[in-house]
Specification:
Elements: E1 4-11, H1 42-54, E2 66-71, E3 76-79, H2 95-101, E4 102-103, E5 108-110, H3 120-169, H4 180-187, H5 198-209, H6 224-239, H7 248-252, H8 257-269, H9 284-293, H10 296-321, H11 337-352, H12 355-370, H13 383-412, H14 414-432, H15 434-472, H16 476-490, E6 495-500, E7 503-508, H17 515-518, E8 536-542, E9 545-552
Antiparallel strand pairs: 1-2, 2-3, 4-5, 5-7, 6-7, 8-9
Length: 553
């Protein structure tokens, strides 16, 4: 067994001066004598060793003190929290011991254990059990420290993840605290596919951040059939032959037909005989020829051309400004914005393909109004091409409006969509941190398992020790031995040591003496089961009263 070699440090230990580890102190020997005046620190020094005996801070030492003792083998024991391990190897006899074990007024003392030869095997077994218990307790304390550290690491990890998740969920007045990740790991179903790419996660965080749903949007409306009809009408008017008898002047000067028509109608309506332009008389024959050339069919054609031209011009303006009235991409729900931007671009592209076509239609109609009797050459696409373009535009409009419809549905069910986004965010972080969390949790469970196993072993050992102690520790025979020694020393049998529950009584003529006759009794109790047998006793009396008794082992 190693011996106490030195006291390395002292701090705040009553009257004793503080000592640092670097300061030299003579090492302890096998026997050491410490002497000094009252109040010089002898009792305080003995209480340092009493801490090692009890494995805990001594009640009579200052509460804030600290010290460190070292064995000759290098092991150290520190106050206030690392004193265990020498409990069964250190015994201190000082005033504190006397105060605990001797009741002067009642004439009582604590037990001295007499271990018979027959009990020596049990005593050895008990001593071994106590040593095993001390080893198990040290192992338990070490594993408990590891478990505490791992529990702290797991707690810190939960706190970190909770802060990260809370920052993404935007819960407002609600909280996502450190215990919530543990609950989510147990209740939410997730796998590695729950992890999100950065863009998808950002989109969900943006949904969670919203304080109100985005407003509903109007679907786009384009009269694709009106576009197709305008183009086909322009083609018809461009290629139309009026099929009527016309004057040579009209064929030679087709641009003058509208002017001629207007002049003829004015002169006829006002019954004018002479031409307002040249002043010549307009003969009946000339009037008849003009009337035949400028009949109702030409009037109708001119009307239709002007009407078609006006509609084509309006349609061209609408096509050019149509996209200005469509919902903007920024107005869309964030998760739909990219799809909507693509659909909007497709619709705009197909619609813009019709701009030069409608421009050509406007040119044709305008030219035919100016020369109604002459067909117009043109660059209009074929009817099949116009039909294909119209169908592509309709499909693009349908796709764009489908995204708008999704946006409106999401807006109408905002709370459910936001809850879904927040759950997806939590699952992402659960999946992302799964390996670290599982490792920390398993490590803690492993450490706690070792602590529980050791505590079970300690409880079993404590039961065994209690049972062995009941068999070994009996103080009755020691009373008889003490009485024989007292009578042999005094030469008479007036004084008798009686065993009572928890200790002894000193009696005279079988009666307890008064406190005045009892004097002072000092006793040194053997160290417990497994201690050496009592081998000597010295009693010193002054007259008939006991002044002092030393029980030596």
């Amino acid at each position: 067994m190693a011996a106490i070699a030195t006291i390395k440090t002292l701090s705040g230990v009553g009257v004793l001066a503080d000592k640092a580890a670097r300061e030299d102190m003579p090492p302890f020997r096998q026997f050491n004598l410490v002497y000094g005046f009252n109040g010089s620190g002898k009792s305080t020094l003995s209480r340092l060793f009493a801490c090692l005996e009890d494995g805990k801070h001594h009640g009579n030492l200052p509460s804030g003190c600290s010290f460190e003792s070292a064995l000759d083998g290098g092991a150290t024991f520190k106050a206030p929290n690392a004193l265990g391990g020498l409990d069964s190897h250190v015994r201190v006899f000082n005033e504190d011991f006397i105060a605990r074990n001797l009741e002067w007024k009642e004439g009582r003392a604590s037990s001295i254990f007499y271990i018979s030869e027959e009990q020596s095997d049990l005593a050895a077994e008990l001593s071994a059990a106590q040593q095993t218990l001390a080893d198990k307790e040290r192992s338990r304390d070490a594993d408990k420290k590891i478990a505490d550290e791992r529990e702290k690491a797991l707690k810190n990890y939960r706190t970190e993840r909770a802060k990260l998740v809370a920052a993404s969920l935007h819960l407002g007045n609600r909280r996502y605290e450190a215990r919530q990740p543990e609950k989510d790991y147990e209740t939410l179903s997730y796998d590695k596919d729950a992890r999100l790419e950065a863009e998808a996660l950002t989109a969900l965080v943006d949904v969670a951040r919203l304080t109100a749903p985005p407003p509903a949007l109007n679907a786009i409306s384009i009269e694709v059939d009106a576009i197709r009809k305008t183009v086909e009408g322009a083609r018809h008017f461009a290629e139309l032959s009026i099929g009527t008898v016309v004057l040579d002047e009209m064929e030679n000067h087709p641009a003058m037909v509208p002017w001629l028509k207007t002049g003829h109608d004015f002169h006829s309506a006002n019954d004018l005989e002479n031409c307002l332009l040249c002043g010549n008389t307009i003969s009946d024959a000339r009037k008849q020829k003009l009337a035949q050339a400028l009949d109702d069919r030409l009037s109708k054609l001119l009307g239709e051309l002007k009407d078609a031209g006006a509609k084509a011009s309006i349609l061209l303006t609408e096509i050019r400004s149509a996209s200005d009235a469509w919902p903007k991409t920024a107005e869309l729900e964030l998760q739909l914005a990219e799809r909507y931007a693509t659909a909007r671009h497709d619709t705009d592209s197909f619609l813009n393909d019709f701009v030069p076509v409608i421009e050509e239609a406007c040119r044709i109609l305008s030219a035919r109004v100016e020369q109604p009797t002459t067909p117009i050459t043109h660059d209009l696409p074929s009817p099949d091409q116009i039909a294909a373009r119209s169908e592509a535009l309709k499909e693009a409009i349908a796709v764009q409006n489908a995204v708008v419809s999704e946006h409106n549905e999401a807006s109408a069910d905002f709370a459910k969509r936001q809850d879904g986004a927040r759950e997806a965010i939590k699952k992402h972080y659960l999946a992302e941190g799964h390996e670290n969390y599982a490792a920390l949790k398993n490590s803690l469970e492993e450490a706690n398992g070792r602590v529980s196993s050791l505590e079970e072993e300690i409880r079993t050992l404590e039961g065994d020790i209690a049972e062995l102690s009941a068999k070994v520790r009996t103080h009755g025979p020691a009373a008889d031995q003490i009485t024989k020694l007292v009578r042999a020393y005094l030469g008479h049998g007036e004084l008798t040591i009686f065993a009572v529950d928890g200790g002894y009584e000193l009696r005279r003529h079988n009666k307890c003496p008064s406190s005045g006759n009892l004097g002072r009794l000092r006793a040194f109790q053997a160290g417990g089961p497994g201690s050496p047998l009592i081998n000597a006793m010295r009693l010193q009396f002054r007259g008939a009263s006991a002044e002092r008794a030393w029980f030596s082992v």
